[in-house]
């Protein structure tokens, strides 16, 4: 940390403040996303964190790094947001038919995908030596979904300890609680997270192929062909026995290939073909913006975003999101035919 930058920032120099905090903005947003499960809410939390840091700069005594201080402010801001239940309303486009009975009703209706381009903005700081998760696993949709099922304080403790790798004493200082309370919350969080991930089929699956690898390209090209051609048999044949089909903010979730087949068959009679699938990446997973022909104009219209979870040479999760998330990925609302 530059003492000169800090003194200039305390004197009201906004450029100096930006130089202090901007290197940490990307990782703060990823942290807030893990806490909140929503890109929009994470963006708001980061903005409020930086405003709070600017206003409270005079109280920063320099006993920790600027990075750790910002994590303290951001984590507590996220905890306040979760406790206050001040999430923005989430609207869902109703299904065009009566859905088959789902395997379960999902509870994380606010979940949004996280653009990989934002992960490119992460700083150079590496997780501490006590981190338990690799960065790719800790941003996956399955992991973030499971996090949302934890109580707020254990969720924060697990992220600080097992994802960021802060020692127990430092995590306790960040949260303003005792080290014993941190250790107790971490035990509860690990047990609850393991249970949630097991229920979601995320623990025993084979690892995904490397991003951009021939194995990933072969599987995703087959999926795109089947999806655009409405080939239900081909889609189902690619799914693992423990796969899930989800569509937040709608709560319906379907477990296993046959449940997915029932849903896709019901949708088939009411669905027009997908005319274009524009590739993006979300949560370090392959994803596409889906476009269909607009019957009233000469354009293709964005109807949603689909994200694949891969396990070995199989699809373990298909998650379809509303078209509104496309803006975070730079996907235009319309394309020329």
Descriptive keywords:
transcription; eight-stranded mixed beta sheet; 8 strands; alpha+beta; single chain; Nuclear Transport Factor 2, Chain: A; 13 helices; 2 domains; 337 residues; Butyryl-CoA Dehydrogenase, subunit A, domain 3
Would you state the CATH class of the largest domain? Mainly Alpha
Number of DSSP E strands? 8
- Let me know the CATH homologous superfamily of the largest domain: PhyR, sigma-like (SL) domain
Largest sheet properties: 8 strands, mixed
Number of helices: 13
Distance between the termini: 52 Å
Can you tell me the CATH topology of the largest domain? Butyryl-CoA Dehydrogenase, subunit A, domain 3
Q: What is the correct CATH architecture of the largest domain?
A: Up-down Bundle
Order of helices and strands: HHHHHEHHHHHHHEEHEEEEE
List the uncertain runs.
none
| Structural class estimated from helices and strands | alpha+beta
Cα-based radius of gyration, to the nearest Å: 21 Å
Q: Which geometry do the CA atoms define?
A: globular
**Average pLDDT over all residues:** 92
Keywords: Nucleotidyltransferase, Sigma factor, Transcription, Transcription regulation, Transferase
Family: Belongs to the sigma-70 factor family. ECF subfamily.
GO molecular function: DNA-directed RNA polymerase activity
Subunit structure: Interacts transiently with the RNA polymerase catalytic core formed by RpoA, RpoB, RpoC and RpoZ (2 alpha, 1 beta, 1 beta' and 1 omega subunit) to form the RNA polymerase holoenzyme that can initiate transcription.
Layout: helices, strands, pairs:
Blueprint (H helix, E strand, L loop, with lengths): L2 H8 L3 H8 L3 H12 L2 H17 L10 H19 L19 E2 L10 H4 L21 H8 L3 H12 L4 H8 L3 H21 L14 H15 L3 H6 L1 E8 L5 E4 L1 H12 L7 E7 L2 E9 L5 E13 L2 E8 L12 E3 L1
Parallel strand pairs: 2-7
Antiparallel strand pairs: 1-3, 2-3, 4-5, 5-6, 6-7, 6-8
Helix pairs in contact: 1-2, 3-4, 3-5, 4-5, 8-9, 8-10, 9-10
Family: Belongs to the sigma-70 factor family. ECF subfamily.
Protein name: RNA polymerase subunit sigma-70
Pfam families: Sigma70_r2, Sigma70_r4_2, SnoaL_2
């Amino acid at each position: 940390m530059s003492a000169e930058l800090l003194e200039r920032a305390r004197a009201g120099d906004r450029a100096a403040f930006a130089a202090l905090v901007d290197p940490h903005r990307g990782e703060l947003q990823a942290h807030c996303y893990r806490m909140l499960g929503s890109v929009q809410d994470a963006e708001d939390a980061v903005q409020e964190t930086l405003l709070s840091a600017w206003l409270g700069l005079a109280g920063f005594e320099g006993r920790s790094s600027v990075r750790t201080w910002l994590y303290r402010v951001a984590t507590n801001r996220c905890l306040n947001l979760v406790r206050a239940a001040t999430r923005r309303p989430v609207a869902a486009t109703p299904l065009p038919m009566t859905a088959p009975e789902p395997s379960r009703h999902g509870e994380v209706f606010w979940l949004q995908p996280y653009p990989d381009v934002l992960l490119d903005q992460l700083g150079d700081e590496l997780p501490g030596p006590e981190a338990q998760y690799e960065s790719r696993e800790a941003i996956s949709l399955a992991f973030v979904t499971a996090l949302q099922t934890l109580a707020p304080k254990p969720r924060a403790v697990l992220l600080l300890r097992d994802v960021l790798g802060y020692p127990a004493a430092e995590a306790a200082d960040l949260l303003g609680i005792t080290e014993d309370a941190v250790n107790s919350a971490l035990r509860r969080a690990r047990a609850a997270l393991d249970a949630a991930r097991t229920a979601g089929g995320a623990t025993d699956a084979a690892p995904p192929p490397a991003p951009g690898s021939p194995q990933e390209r072969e599987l995703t090209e087959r999926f795109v062909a089947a999806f655009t051609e409405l080939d239900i048999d081909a889609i189902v044949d690619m799914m693992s026995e423990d796969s899930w089909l989800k569509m937040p903010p709608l709560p319906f979730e379907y477990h296993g290939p046959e449940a997915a087949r029932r849903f896709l068959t019901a949708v088939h009679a009411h669905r027009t073909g997908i005319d274009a699938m524009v590739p993006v990446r979300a949560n370090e997973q392959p994803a596409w913006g889906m476009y269909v022909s607009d019957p009233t104009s000469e354009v293709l219209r964005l109807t949603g975003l689909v994200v694949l979870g891969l396990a070995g040479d199989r699809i373990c999760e298909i998650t379809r999101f509303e078209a509104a998330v496309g803006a975070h990925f730079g996907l235009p609302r319309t394309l020329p035919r």
